[in-house]
Design goal:
Elements: H1 3-19, H2 26-35, H3 44-54, H4 61-73, E1 77-82, E2 85-90, E3 96-102, E4 108-111, H5 114-122, E5 133-139, H6 142-166
Parallel strand pairs: 3-5
Antiparallel strand pairs: 1-2, 3-4
Length: 167
Amino acid sequence: MKENVKSTVKNILTNYLEQNNLRKTPERFAILDAVYSIEGHFTLDELSDKLNEVERFPVSRATLYNTLKLFMELRLVIRHRFQGATKYEACYDNNSHSHQICTMCGKVTEFKSQKINEAIAALHLRRFRKDGFSLYIYGICSACQAKITKRAIKRSDTKIQHLKINK
């Protein structure tokens, strides 16, 4: 992640904590730094592992939950609920999230579409100010499609062999 983005999000957190008379704990800043050094989506366990192994800064699960909740309120982190898994993502410099989700293997791929961005920007909603959006498109990825096709061909070959034997 770009250093200027990390600096900006640290300033946002610092200002919020000062304005609300909250403590500027090293845990909050370590978690923020870890979040903004992870590319893409991450689980709570992956964040915990990064803090334990890479940063050498272990924190409790409760601290992680509470801190991520604070970061979501500040719009520094977004939470996604993908097929049975909750994942998080740094979002300060990216308010538009479009995802393809494979319903077979659960693979999540983020993509960008100028047409979707333009359509959302042109959308006029009553009594509502848009800040960003998340779009989830469910389907079957090409790898899973290939597996399905391979199985179908194998089944049909087995049926043909079975028919030939029984004639």
